[in-house]
Amino acid sequence: MINVMIVEDQTMLLDSLAKAIDTQENMRVVSRQVDAAVAVKEAASGIADIVLMDVCTENDSSGIVASAKIKKLNPAVKIVIMTGMPDITFVQQAKDVGVDSFVYKNIGTEDLFNVIQSTMDGYSTYPHAPIQTDIDLSDFTEDEIAILKLVCETKSRREIAQILYLSEGTVKRRISEILARTGYESILKLAVHAVSCGLIVPNMKDE
To answer: What is the pLDDT of residues 126-149, one digit of tens each?
Structure first.
């Protein structure tokens, strides 16, 4: 079960998010807050596995500042920043403080569920520049190709790290570099494209 905290000062959106998440068999809302600054202590306590954090909350509290504090107190807590404002500086600020994923509020409900699940699986989702469709594997390092193949085989970031004898931090950094270079917002989407184009043939045999 994925325990979710929502930090959102718009009551209607907060209520609809909570109701939607509670319809999922593997997710439940354990806390709802309207002020990011007030939510820091509770979020860092480990009550939730993942926090959906608005950028601007009640009392002019910054969700990004709050996220930085939460990550400092408890790095294991996953955080997804949400915003309805198309300010590209928010994306970099979120990355700089270690936020796991970033979405805009016009995201569909199913897509949000997918972001929550993939973030819990160790993958980051961020908006990027236009997608590069003419991907050339010669532009990738051996480690990057190995990581992409293992993603195609549905391995989690932790499993990839163990298989390649890398730290999870290194795998995360390599994935971020791949996404930044190709313009994909999710390593899973890039993997699907790579397989569909025949660039990578995953080994899906049972171990």
So the answer is: 876 545 556 777 778 888 888 888
